[in-house]
Amino acid sequence: MKDESGTETGGYQPYSYFQLMEVSLRELLVEKGIVTEAQVAATVEDIRSRSPERGARVVARAWTDPAFKTKLLADGTKACEELGLDVPALRLVVVENTPEVHNMIVCTLCSCYPRMLLGLPPDWYKSRNYRSRAVREPRTVLSEFGLSLSEQIKIRVHDSTADMRYLVLPMRPAGTGGWSEERLAAMVTRDCMIGVAVPKAN
Amino acid sequence: MAANEIGARFGPGDRVRVRKAYPLGHIRTPFYIRGHSGAVERLCGAFGNPEELAQMRSGEPRQPLYRVRFLQSEVWPGYRGNPEDALEVEIFQHWLEPGRA
After folding, report:
1. CATH architecture of the domain covering A51-194
2. Which of A58, A120, A146, B58 is most buried, by CB atoms within 10 Å?
């Protein structure tokens, strides 16, 4: 590997601006005794351990347990606690797709996202393109994701502008009667829970 | 109601209008919705005022936060879709005024 002057660098690449900022800030915090390296590592590990599988478990439970679904729609945070999922501080609002209504989630101001249930948001969720167009032309945006909804179906776009976080409860696909929770959960992708896709039975 | 919290003025179904104001600072009310009218979908509870929190102040008294439903066709001229397509946005009480019934 060579740098711009043509000098062989042996695979070494200088830090980018943001990487340099992150390393500098982290080392300063450790040096000043505000956090330890172990705490930083544990936090990074915690963030990495969260994935859309958590949200999928919640959806699959709601599909198979009507009492849980009622609780989930009434108070998402409390219902998730029952599954051992800690949804700290922020309140979770679960919005249900029905044959009449389709829901989708955006944060036009930044990138608010139910990280405790879906992990880190995908890059497109944070893009200016998605954030500005999801509220203005949701049907066009959905069709770009491959989801063309009939005009009979009402679309509700939820802009997470403050303290709430949102999860879409998709409709359970036909032909999945008798499926186990695990098998159901496997169909529920991240995009289904943001509302830019719907689950399909394989 | 706690002393460090402002009481809720609105309830579900109430018509409200978002203030059309452009103060500087950390504002969680999106520009596109300012000046538009909708109906309260639910009261979410009372939360620290983000405009104060951003200034490293306590955010108290906490402000009631609502989810307000707007019709897309009222927000965007020439919107195409179902006439009942809607947008739901979280808005703090101090950004809302009573709307026409």
Report:
1. Alpha-Beta Complex (3.90)
2. A58
